[in-house]
Design brief:
By secondary structure, the protein is of the alpha+beta class. It is built from eleven helices and eight strands.
């Protein structure tokens, strides 16, 4: 169930299969360098190049196209594993995998057919969507200041996008824009094309390596075959659920890493307080209780997101079969929303309890354990939980439909 439909294509070397030793080795390699990258001693570009070389961007494509043929739940399991290794990495990759999902649903359109060829070649896609100055964030009107205008036999793109997560590391950017006639379009541009300026100016307290800064487009040439009128694009109910659940899954992965780090910290402690329950910290039942709480928190967080991922996978399968199941999409959006509200709180508490297990030495800057709280807080702030909880409550009490645009 939930496996992407196989279609004939040119054979490519396959990306690592779900559960394979090759995939585990890649994730372990990413984890080994996470603290060095957080300290600025290693370059995140090297990780993305390693991922590109492994062709991990094809994870959801069929085996005949060089992919792993992974199910959607298996993709979210990959997000969990990558987030536990280094939460920046799956965050960087979110827009690429969201684009892959859309391309798989819309492969019958000539634009997506060409763009899928680029994905099969191992190339990575980013996104240019958000603009500052929009009053109603996420309602779809944020593309108005980025214009695509005719220029001879082609087009010219000009505008500024913010929160350009991952574009610094990618090959292509799908930019949301508007024509002079007021039609909304998506335009593909090369990251290194003349006029494209991807700025590494993200100054968030967490997810510091995601390059979630500004991208400026100045008279960028765009060919007609790289423009898609959005009214012709393939739509699904609750189109934002995939990306929202992705973020919550990253947080769940961080909680797993917190539990593992706390276990390591406690096991390495030698000294304990004179009035503690045991001389050796690892034998102290109060500290053992904290470790048990953290591993339980990780289990609950992972279970929540994987259940939502399974439901969303079934919904996506209905679209691949040509009959999108509205009820499945609504249920997936509701499960993803509930997961976000619960997991955010679980994760922030876990990031604090970690220091109770590790003792005062856990607060050393060299340990980099504060990055877990900073990263969780930054990701959770992408979509305020209070608004999501209110929508869930109104749905439960009055049967009010969930919002259908961004964030749901």
């Amino acid at each position: 169930m939930n496996t992407v439909t196989d279609t004939p294509a040119v054979l490519h070397p396959r990306c690592p299969a779900p559960g394979s030793a090759e995939l585990r080795a890649l994730i372990d390699e990413i984890a080994a360098g996470s603290e060095a990258r957080d300290r600025g001693e290693a370059d995140t570009r090297d990780v993305i190049e390693r991922i590109r070389a492994a062709r991990l961007g094809l994870f959801r494509l069929p085996a005949s196209q060089g992919g792993a043929g992974a199910t959607l739940p298996q993709l979210y399991e990959l997000v969990l594993d990558l987030a536990a290794a280094d939460s920046n990495i799956p965050h960087i990759l979110r827009n690429h995998f969201a684009f892959v999902e859309k391309a798989l649903r819309a492969s019958h359109l000539p634009q997506y057919a060409r763009w899928l060829d680029r994905i099969r070649n191992g190339e990575l896609f980013g996104l240019g969507a958000s603009e500052i100055g929009t009053q109603n964030v996420g309602d779809g009107d944020g593309d108005g200041n980025t214009l695509l205008v005719p220029r001879g036999d082609a087009f010219s793109l000009t505008g500024v996008k913010y929160y350009s997560t991952g574009n610094l590391y990618f090959d292509h950017i799908m930019v949301n824009a508007k024509t002079p006639e007021g039609h909304f379009v998506a335009a593909r541009v090369g990251v290194h094309a003349p006029g494209v300026d991807v700025r590494d100016d993200w100054d968030g307290i967490g997810q510091r390596l995601t390059a979630s800064g500004t991208t400026v487009y100045t008279d960028v040439a765009v060919q007609p075959h790289d423009v898609l009128p959005l009214e012709e694009d393939v739509k699904i109910p609750h189109q934002a659920t995939f990306a929202q659940l992705w973020l919550t899954t990253i947080i769940a992965g961080i909680v797993r890493r917190i539990a593992d780090d706390a276990t390591q910290q406690l096991g390495a402690r030698v000294r304990n307080y004179y009035h503690a329950s045991a001389a050796r910290p690892a034998d102290d039942p109060l500290l053992q209780e904290i470790i048990g709480e953290l591993h339980s928190a990780a289990y609950v967080a992972e279970s929540a997101v994987l259940r939502a991922g399974t439901t969303l996978g079934a919904a996506f399968e209905s679209s691949h079969a040509g009959q999108p199941d509205e009820a499945l999409y609504v249920e997936a959006a509701l499960q993803a929303a509930k997961s976000k509200v619960a997991v955010d709180g679980i994760a922030l508490k876990a990031a604090t309890r970690l220091f109770d297990a590790g003792g005062a030495s856990a607060a050393r800057q060299s340990a980099r354990l504060d990055r877990h709280w900073r990263n969780i807080r930054t990701i959770a702030s992408h979509n305020p939980g209070a608004y999501k909880a209110r929508a869930i409550g109104e749905h439960a009490v009055n049967g009010t439909a969930l919002p259908r645009a961004a964030f749901f």
